[in-house]
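Hey, weird one. I pasted the PP2C family protein-serine/threonine phosphatase sequence into the form twice and got a warning about non-standard characters only the second time. First submission, copied straight from the form history:
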Amino acid sequence: MSEAEARARRIVTDAPTDLIVDRLAAELRRTYGITDTELYQVDYRLAELLPLGGDEAIAGPGHPAWHAFDHQEPIVADGTGWFPVGMRGERRGVLRVAPMPDDRDARRELDTIATVLGHELAAVTSTTDIYLTTRRSRRLTLAAEMQWEMLPGRSRIRPSFSLAGQLEPAYAVRGDSFDWSDDGHRLWLAVLNGFGEGVAAALLTSLATYALRNARRAGLPLADQAALADQAIYAQHRGGQHLSVLLMELDLATGTLTAVDAGSPHLIRLRGGEVAQQTLDKQFPLGMFDGTDYREQRFQLDRGDRLFVVSDGVIDATADRIRYGESALDRFLRRTGPLEPLDAVRSLIGDLRAFVAGDLVDDAVVVCLDWLGPQPDAGPAQ
């Protein structure tokens, strides 16, 4: 690490939470002669890059900022540098700097500094509302606020897998959600297809999510995780409310996928350009009956397999009495092969919006998981 990088890192980590970008801008001016620094964060719909300051939002897909965001690489255009801001696969936005120094070392250092900024923003987000409020193009509903606060992130990259998810309608989602965790040996993924309206749906999904986390963190097998969450929901609602969930556990050394389908969203596999619905042993949704026993299934993934989990809000979206799941979904999934999971998810949601000619009315969740194969030399968890 160069002296300039080390100094910028200290500036970012030592700055008050509300002055992180301002202090970084002052340091970039002193070190590199950069007079214009701005942070753009991607909004909840993955449709706009919103400035922290007073500049205009960037929505056009052909803009250099979007190129930097989509490809996760620095872009220099017309004397302005655009650097991806994120951490561990979670894309937060881009950093704009101008005038861009005409120096390869400076470009590399600024790229590293943008990544440091991404880590610091992740560290302080729970302590301030500044960075959350400025990544919204409109007000979130209360239910949507609850759902987004529960998410572990929107994307994750490890040597053996890449993962991304999205909730829609982003500013008004109610009951659909997802959750994941990995420990370097296994990846756990839950995709929830909630029922009900407004805050009641969000509360039901919250109860299920925290019950599943509690069981997972206690080291329980996947079927027992489902059973514990089922009991928690039934105890609260006595069968009056229930929730569908697909639980998955991926062994990162072998590619063995264990699944529990509790009235779940749909699991679709893309292998060698071919799309196939994964057959699941459908079981009762969580909370429907008292004391339900759940069964696990196991599948073997091949290196390069891509899995999509989509909720009924995707499958059943209708235009001119034609369901998206019947007419367009498979065709579009085949086209996502070259895309990274977050880009595939965003493109699928965009295609869905175009299909219904506007924002979605019903909740929809899309999660994309790429199995890249075992990585024996990847080292500890990243």
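That's the output from the first submission. The warning seems to come from a hidden character in my clipboard, not from the data itself. The chain has a mean pLDDT of 93.
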